[in-house]
Design brief:
D-Maltodextrin-Binding Protein, domain 2; single chain; 5-stranded mixed sheet; 297 residues; 38% helix; 10 helices; 23% strand; Arc Repressor Mutant, subunit A
């Protein structure tokens, strides 16, 4: 069994037919059929159930296909590592981030590009669960998420703790200091994940623990949508401070809540079973951290 045979096998699995797989591989059908037969004989397993021209993976075939994809990824990552030895960093770095934590990235991407101009970036956005899915599917190398999140498959690097603030429309008059009693009288808008427990539950539970029942009139997973509603005067939003653009004070008022402290934790995460590219390792070194980094092993 060699890489060439596995590539033939993977093409058949993906196309579901010998004919289509042969066309994809730019080869004749008989040699492809022979290679599949040789592979099955070597392994002592039937890899496909034949139903006319259609071919479906057997249980053994599914296992081999899964391991084959892992092997292809390892070969690709190893090739990239070897090519980078002795050279300046180059290539593409795919990063995913929740919108509420994206503020950690722009300045650092600019600095990184100044130092390594041959590195390009591909950015993905979504909630923390979507970012984790991107990592598991190997669409991205690094993800920035808001906790809580199941992290057992990931290395983590904590980012600085983020305090919640109240973002008010310009039309609302309030004193220099803001208190819980003021929040009780306001229409409140909150971030809410599409699935799972997150910032919404954190805010609601912390407020209730402090004897405050919020009047929540809107919740959604997108920070920019909530800020647009604040700007329109719909209500006030409780958001992590880092989620609010620093250059947009003209559209709203940002207030700390004197007697209510809600902290949000963010983290950089990456797969435990994936070796990071050199550009990903260097980029991790550029990010702020509130704790020790876990080695890339």
């Amino acid at each position: 069994m060699d890489i060439r045979q596995l590539r033939y096998f993977a093409a058949i699995a993906e196309e579901g037919q010998i004919t289509r797989a042969a066309k994809k591989l730019h080869m004749a059908q008989p040699p492809l059929s022979y290679q599949l037969k040789t592979l099955e004989e070597e392994l002592g397993q039937t890899l496909f159930e034949r139903n006319g021209k259609a071919m479906e993976l057997t249980e053994a075939g599914r296992l081999l296909y899964e391991r084959t994809n892992e092997l292809f990824r390892w070969v690709e990552e190893t090739t990239q590592d070897v090519q980078q030895v002795g050279k300046g960093l180059k290539g593409n770095l795919a990063i995913g981030s929740v919108k509420s934590s994206f503020s950690y990235l722009p300045e650092r991407i600019k600095q990184f590009r100044d130092e390594y101009p041959e590195v390009t970036f591909q950015l993905y956005e979504g909630d923390s669960y979507r970012i984790a899915d991107y990592l598991l599917n190997r669409d991205i190398e690094i993800g920035i998420v808001r906790l809580p999140l199941d992290l057992h498959q990931f290395h983590t690097m904590p980012l600085p703790t983020d305090q919640f603030v109240c973002v008010l429309p310009k039309s609302i008059s309030c004193s220099d200091s803001l208190h819980m009693s003021d929040l009780a009288e306001m229409p409140i808008m909150l971030l809410h994940r599409v699935r799972g427990v997150g910032l919404y539950e954190l805010v609601i539970d912390t407020c209730r623990d402090n004897g405050l029942e919020l009047n929540v009139i809107c919740h959604c997973p997108d920070t920019s949508m909530l800020l647009t509603l604040v700007r329109a005067g719909v209500g006030a939003a409780l958001l992590p401070l880092s989620a609010i653009p620093a250059s947009s004070e003209e559209w709203w008022i940002v207030k700390h809540i004197e007697d209510l402290h809600i902290n949000s934790e963010s983290a950089v995460i990456w797969l435990k079973n994936r070796r990071l590219s050199k550009q990903a390792e260097r980029f991790l070194d550029s990010l702020p951290t509130s704790g020790p980094k876990i080695p890339n092993i």
